[in-house]
């Protein structure tokens, strides 16, 4: 991964120097296992370990030798042999094949990277928990299809984000089942030379169980689900990032990414506060999906193995981990510094003209209308019509909609003229319905007759004070959001 | 493709019955080619053609036979042989291999489908041309990063959409270069039995040139670019669809998908006018990308061919074409019926507080400030500060931002209270700067000293009437959009 | 999915008629839950259930209505309402949103499809267990990189296949954790109208737990891992299919797909027995990967949901399930009918000239050579040189390699001449080394001096009868495969 | 890209230092364009250019400033401004937006990388031309479905490889149409401040035409086809690599990757010559496909642009180019050093028992049998039966196939016993048919009666010397390959 998006800790895990050290750990574990089981004298084990520990691996030497013999593991063995006397050389890589040495190392690199991911994930989880608590009573429009939907709190939205990343983190946890295993079962996995007892002991030292059924390699079926889980985590972050971008749209943002005091938004337009961090997370998601595909394809190989997967794994895993960590960090930073505008949330609610309660309104009308022969279907259409009525344009707006300018100077005039027009106070479906002020709409089928009948029924309904009280209550946040407590109780506690 | 998203004409092209007819066309062309070149008597050709033409292919018979012998082309030959006397049977599929018969048929199916795509594309192009003309002078905010950017007309946005789909259509045109070719060169492509002269004649009859260098099949390198081009077209439509979804966000949509008089937006919330069509186009784009991947992978095969590609091609090509046609139709319907709100476009411009001209403003201040020792960097920071000043919240908003409710009933009160607060008239950077009213901002680094100095310089600048005039002019649409004429001239004419 | 690759049971699960029945089940469960909890009289529940049960859903009516109102769930509600008296209509979909009805239905479709997948998987597992047992002692070359590797039994290869599909099946099992949950929490998931207690009761009736933290929909994070697991299963099958294709390569196949008595391999070449079934599985894998990508992308949506995912889910899930079931069936048929040629396996072993034991040979030489100052590195190079010696071409072959024909008639002669040349008996590294017959090779660095020294040391080693016996023993299958018993014990019992 | 697979020239093109130099080129071109058009004095242009040229860009300064203001282009402008006097500062980036500077630079990086790709491609083309010439008369079995198919020369296989990469190279050429264009049209592409005349002049200086219809950026529709073409090139190389792997399978390789004198194939098995380079190309193809997907997704953005594409482009393009160049180089090295075994090719032909001519055989029998009332279908079945007869196992093989060992020691015996069995000389369909020696086969439907009848007819046919001569001729390479000359003529000349 290029430096800009690289995580140093991830890069270190996947570095050549760390990999070679892990290879050495495998070699040491096998000799130690043999000693534990009495196959070699313990002195041999100790001296072997001492010599390798005191002679650090020479990366430059290794790299050059690799280029000559075109086999990185053999080059490593040659590098290590340089320090061992012949009688110890025979124990190095004894009865092993390259991937016996490499597979436990590879699984460890996955484990270590995953630990890092989880620590970044945990930070993000805390941030979201804090947000959910802080905005427990900060009301806003829910949005489906980008349209105002029912009322909710911003805290509840944070809860759903929290739950989404938890679902993806749980998935990651489950996906790591395959990391329990590794193998030392030789060139084709049937212990041609290696004794299964030694495999078990040595893998135990390294923290693994034997995988019975390996070929020369661990089947990549064990690792592919991890890539899916990592990718999914980024996709979840991208979903959250998108919600932030959508809320940050000017002119009336409900929240915005933090913007540094020295930050510049654009080289051309100095006013810009662009959502560059959350946009970048979408880019990260594009990459994450692609790295998943690379890794999925690694399942396929020929018979007891070919080495198609190797170059892909050298690139895709560290790059995928970098993308995950970078995305977690970015979203941590964005969420932690998120600038929230509850005033604009209120304005959005007000301008949606009571529609935030349209579902409950329909249920109430349905129930109250039933004795008056109003069908469920009609209750639906009444609320629909009221909503459409509420959003009818005023005279000036209507005129702007119909007379299209035919010259740029007309656009000049339109703009300066419209600026002076006082904006009408929005009318709500709460009043339209309670006051039986439905009108026909060119956008809907309801006839004049329908509307008259409906208004009559509504008048009847709202003559009763009890109905009026009930009606007004359903537009109150405290009524509509009464059940969010359940979510807090289930998710946050 | 499931019926819901299927195009009947595409389905017909990829039907078994059409395919078998195309196979027959290949067989007929080869016999006719032999006759043309004097290799068989013309009577043979005529009778051969007459018999096959008068005996329609029995799909049921063919299907059953295919299941027995597990070879669809051989089953077809057996079906056809039933009607031919032995002396004509020898000319059926003479010296040919299955894919000699199939490849020209397959290329024709691609050609025919592509013609359909283009006709739908052409309709969409006309719609966008009309829109660009109609909204030639309808002004709106451009948006980058979801934020208000410079001023533009909606017509210009339509022009960019038009140009985008044209780019993708041109790409489709170029990608079809490979459809010029086909092959009749036998089981491994080296004319073991077939004479190259007959191939050339027969392919000419079918409308193709020979592809020298085929194996048993045409290399899928010739078709993969078409899949990319088709996919790209859908991605372009998805980009346009997304722009529409973004503009349709309530509460103040600048345009909306058409909504039928009987349409229902939601089973719960009767007020909803959801952007379901444009959202579906995003789903289509997800599919299109995946079909492209399927087809890309078909390039790979073993030696002179294996048949991995066959099942994929039976599924991916017709499904991809259906996705393309469905997306073109959907976007045609959406754009043709798009409900446009120029009044809301004006409101957006007004509420962006002059920032639509911030780029030009910076250039003017840079130029006018130069003699007064104002650096280019300072000009930038002045306009940035003015924009930040313009968006400072009023007192009520500030109070809502800082005092977070701690109970749902507080939210009730906040909502009902905020509804009554009169909304302040937005102040513009046009005035802030011209009147030298810059203030420090907690969001930016500029010190009190900086601000005082800048205001002094601004006062000096705007003492001159000429500068004031020039300044005011840059906020006029007719000034800012003077160069859009160039785009119209280049793209529409 | 096109009929050719469709599974009828899968198609039935994803049919409109089944889906609508599942929707009805949700509606019934909610009313029943209300009755259970005393919110509506039990008579209401019973009559409601009776009427809906006795009036089957009219698919045609529904489809037409859907096209008018462009909302499939509302169309379903209208269809059902036709049979309900107004006082029962109010209970239909009461306080619910469309996806409250749809989500449990969708999760059930996933569950039912998964049950089908598992039953096909189980059949395959039994077939592979049988194969592993049958071929417990049938020896063959292992192959890595397509090259002969150590010796193994075909039974052991079957064991690794078995273990691979088990790993993928276990992954599928784990991935289904998300199918425990569903939701009835209303338009944005915060129980605006619905009571959480009723959700819990109703979901319990349907076999689910509530998912706290849903928006309008269950987050697709819960389903994406299932798609990964299904895809992975196909990729595993493709890996096995590839191993079969590789073993089936003529001229000396070690096994072949079953070939029907009436089957035809090619329209041009009657001798062909093509590996069309296993090749098709590669095509299926290409599709499976693409469907996974479609489904992964469905995680993303806007805020409390948009409907980008819907069209994709209608297509990708049933198509993916069809691909999985078709691949499982195909591989079941291929493996069950696999024609195995143990004689050709033996020939392959013989022709690999003892190299099947090269790893063990190197270990033995290393150990025996240590007292004679032979390094581990030299032991490696001795066995490498012996192997290269064993494969040196004979005189005729060498001549063919160096004199390239310059005309086709020369090729005629070469072919007829070479046919008559008696093929030499292959010489084995077993003899070359034990008889100290190493020679220099142009392909390796070893000098004349090296080779002389090594031959001298080998002579010394193999003077001892004990060493000769030990040496010969390592070329015996019974020695090399002694540890395969461990695998059988761990995997099969 | 990690160093192992990185191309230094590609890395240089995509380095920060090169990118910043290209940015400077844009800035210089715009000032020069203004001078050319008389908008600024030529002295200004010259001094501006001189100062920037003589003060190299300080990468460290830029990097640090980028991190502060989070805007790389603004940081670049600030870095450059340091060296300019205020009166020249105003000309830097005058009336431009960041992507005005960046887009021409980006398109140049694509152009330069593409030139590199082509030079590597050209080397590969020459290698394949040489191979096609050298092996013009080296005969081998064609293979379809991994099975022996008709006869061909290895030269002809090289021709098809050559043609495949040419098809992909032509596609690359066509895909670059979009690189003709760039843009300087400002923040939203409508020349808010910039004059279109200056854009045209400046782009001309940089080697581009204006793209009318850009937004803030060039639509990524112009670049996506290039990614497809690059990816396709790698997929073609992977197809060729796979053919080489398949031919290199031991025990009887027809060709092999070059193997270095010091190379080691395996740490466990010293005999191994693994096909690691060609396998790596498959890994490269996995990566290439994924990078294509990343780049395809970049088409989508919001309205006049958001910046999702930027991080992807920083990673995917250089990584894709590295993958392409690495694959081209690898395949160049492999093909140039390919070790070809014409003797093994001959052995394969001989062992396929005349089936290499089965297609032509069927045509001849069909023709000669017609007067004897043999149908075309029967001619097919005769040749099929003869081929199945030819491959019937001998007694020893049959016994090995039916008696499965039940203990490892039995496997020991079987192996040592089978080694001594003399291998029968293969019998050819050439004789079976000409000598009318067809027998029934358990694998096919033909009855005893059928076979008797067919043998009788064959006897009749082959009584005539003319028919016998004609028959024998069709098994000659010089006959079967007579038309390959056409391919050489069309492709190579």
Can you summarize this structure?
By secondary structure, chain A is mainly α. Chain A contains 22 helices and six strands.
Explain what the structure shows.
- The structure is a homotetramer of 493-residue chains.
- The first copy, chain A, has 493 residues and is mainly alpha-helical.
- The first copy, chain A, has two domains: 10-344, Up-down Bundle (Fumarase C, Chain A, domain 2); 355-474, no CATH class.
- Helices cover 63% and strands 4% of the residues of chain A.
- In chain A, the strands form three sheets. Chain A has a two-stranded antiparallel sheet with strand order 1-2. The first copy, chain A, has a two-stranded parallel sheet with strand order 3-4. A two-stranded antiparallel ribbon of chain A has the order 5-6.
- In chain A, a hairpin with a 2-residue loop joins strand 1 and strand 2.
- The model of chain A has no long low-confidence stretch (mean pLDDT 96).
- The interface between A and C is large, with 101 and 101 residues.
Strand composition percent of chain A: under 5%
Order of strands across the widest beta sheet of chain A? 1-2
Structural class of chain A: mainly alpha
Please tell me the total number of domains of chain A.
2
**Which residues of chain A form runs of ≥5 with pLDDT under 50?**
none
Radius of gyration of CA atoms of chain A, rounded to a whole number: 33 Å
CATH fold descriptor of the largest domain in chain A: Fumarase C, Chain A, domain 2
* Helix and strand pattern of chain A: HHHHHHHEEHEHEHEHHEHHHHHHHHHH
Number of helices, counting only DSSP H or I runs of 4 residues or more of chain A: 22
Distance between the termini of chain A: 39 Å
Largest sheet of chain A: 2 strands, antiparallel
Greatest interface: A-C, 101 and 101 residues
The CATH superfamily of the largest domain in chain A bears the name Fumarase/aspartase (Central domain)
Quaternary state of this entry equals homotetramer
Number of strands of chain A: 6
If you average the pLDDT of chain A, what whole number results?
96
CATH class of the largest domain in chain A: Mainly Alpha
**Outline type of chain A:** elongated
Percent helix of chain A, as a range, is 55-70%
